[in-house]
Amino acid sequence: MSSLLIRGGTVVNADLSRRADVLVADGTIREVAPNLEASDKTETIDAGGCLVMPGGIDPHTHLEYPFMGTRTSEDFFTGTSAAVAGGTTMVIDFVIPDAGQSPIDAYSVWRARAEKSAADYGFHVAITWWDDSVREAMGTLVGELGINSFKHFMAYKGSIMVDDAVLIRSFERARELGALCLVHAENGDLVAHAQAALLGKGIKGPIGHALSRPPEVEAEAAHRAIRIAQVLGAPLYIVHNSCAQSLAALERARHEGQRVFAEVLAGHLLIDDSVYRSDSWDFAAAHVMSPPFRSREHQAALWRGLETGLLHTTATDHACFCAEQKRMGRDDFTLIPNGTGSIEDRMHVLWHHGVNAGRLTENEFVAVTSANAARIFNVYPRKGSVSVGADADIVVWDPQRERLISSKTHHQKVDINLFEGMVVRGVNVVTMSRGHVVFREGQLLTEVGAGQFVPRPPFAPVNASLQRKRMASALDEVT
Ligand code: URP
Ligand code: ZN
Ligand code: ZN
After folding, report:
1. Residue 396 phi/psi, 5° resolution?
2. Which atom of ligand 1 has the smallest separation from the CA of 60?
3. How far apart are CA 66 and CA 320, in angstroms?
């Protein structure tokens, strides 16, 4: 039995912090207690002056994703390697079937791609079209294939966008199965309308991307998804909330007792829309993502949402494209591949601008970087917790160590870094994935294929039925 003792640190979980050593054997945490003894064969890691926290969970990534005529530059090995370099030890990526493609076939394609992962991973499956076979496939995915969440794109008209009729059928089916529905909330028809109008006026550069997707376009879709979920009694998770108007819709829904979870991206918290006004086309295009970066007022609202618990999780939406790929939209902003990355930097910037800035406690940091995602996506406490029986996905975090973030030194496979030049204080000096040290003192020690698929069970059906009774009594009367 291979064992490892992390000695002398402070264990920080979402609920409390305490001085304790952590004994790991065969990939699992065996003991968490002060003054543990190491046997001769036990390797020790000195965590004196450091915090010992659960590895991060990034619940929103797109590794090796064929999108907008190209493919994201990061594959499952490079992406999960960059993730562990930044203290993230699990990602939840997206299976995105083409229109007409069986969701099960698409699931097999993504499972094969992910076999090279260096850290653990799960999948959400997108519902991109509808017929009875999709309904049936959702049952198989939940019942047999470890999926408990389905994603719906309300934007990207003409490719993966679905209309309300599909949302309704899919939300209802997911509720029946004890699965969670996710939405990318932007009104794709409004976006297409604005894109055509802007191109008609001769606006062809990256600024057109931001202008075609104002906050109202996002808020309308968020509100619509929330109300559809409310009528059907289906729990909902809204990805990459970026504006105050979406938060208002969320706040109202939660105030009314609705089960709505919400995510924010590290990028939306820290990058503002001035990037689209850069004189450099490449720089502006590198920031083309959906929803776009917003003004500082929205950033302030997002931080408040995170501080007050309205936003539960932080993610990256890691969907990287290099400059050459972005140039596909040189003459037409609608052809610039949408996406940015920060899988390596999320934990660092969240600590620096969250904990160091007095916005988050260290325990809240754990909540928003791992524990809440683990709970919402039903892998807690196996993930998101330093506790006996959990997977040994652990970071040893030096709150004094500084890092200068740069594309010149990052491990991400992309030629830009969103946070270029930012100096952060508080970084992981060791990352452990299932008990293996995969990053230590700046050195990546990852292995192709060492990561494992993490099946996620459905949520207890009783909760879904209670939710339905509470939220949809009007609908019960007609069904
Ligand atoms: O611009 C983005 N976010 N690209 C990735 C796909 C998505 O919308 O999540
Ligand atoms: Zn999206
Ligand atoms: Zn995404």
Report:
1. -100, 115
2. 9
3. 11
The position carrying tokens 């099946």 is 455
Nearest-CA residue for ligand 1 atom 5 is: 339
Confidence at residue 470, expressed as pLDDT on a 0 to 100 scale: 56
Domain range enclosing 410: 3-53+383-444
Ligand 1 pocket test: which of 187, 213, 289, 340 has the largest number of ligand atoms within 8 Å of its C-beta?
Answer: 289
pLDDT digits (tens, 9 = 90+) for 344-353: 999 999 999 9
Domain-ending residue, one of 332, 363, 380: 380
Whether 73 lines ligand 1, by a CB cut-off of 6 Å, is: no
Q: Is 184 in the pocket of ligand 1 (CB under 6 A)?
A: yes
pLDDT at 379 over 90: yes
479 pLDDT higher than 90: no
pLDDT at 463 over 90: no
| 219 found inside a domain | yes
**Dist CA 458 CA 320 (whole Å):** 31
Q: Does ligand 1 lie within 6 Å of residue 299's CB atom?
A: no
- Amino acid identity of residue 449, one-letter, is G
